[in-house]
Amino acid sequence: xxxxxxxxxDDPLFKKALEMYEDIFKAEIREDRHVFIHxxxxxxxxxxxxxxxxxxxxxxxxxxxxxxxxxxxxxxxIYLMTHPDYRNQRVxxxxxxxxxxxxxxxxxxxxxxxxxxxxxxxxGEDTYDNEKQxxxxxxxxxxxxxxxxxxxxxxPYIQPNPQKSLPPTPIDLYIKQYLPLQKDVISPSIRxxxxxxxxxxxxxxxxxxxxxxxxxDL
Length: 218
Prior knowledge:
The chain is of the alpha+beta class. The chain is about 40% helix and about 25% strand. The protein contains six helices and nine strands; from the N terminus they run βααβββαβαββββαα.
């Protein structure tokens, strides 16, 4: 398996990866293509935006995206997905390791050391009524735990809905720390990553995002 870092929306892998993304995620829960295009082309965020495609025999089998946030030396993995035909073959594990490595490269370039922490979001069991979806959420939870990501129990975390006309959505927040961090470091890091993604990346209204952060005491 190999990985390619996509830096241009004209790269054929960009289109192929988004086609896989749209096949995996239902229209009502996925972000518009514009978010990916904007993240790769915006002068403000493209420098520290990462779009990685996993390949087996030139077939796109995985995708991961993330933002590195230099002011707090932290990072936010946005997507980590594997094509259904290639699950349970360590594709997801290798893809996670690859995006982490790329995020740390950005940290090394700016600060000369790895990122302090990486965060990600994942829908938990409580989100679903369907037993199959609950089990899939439980599998994701154990996967993240296995790779050092701990669910944050004391933050009432919510994300802006990808469909901007709908209300915000509760979702689990996971953090992997690369050195011991206190709350007075973790909270500002989450806030910075959240602003980077949801204001600068997704172009949500600034005041709306600040209200969500205040509601989470971040």
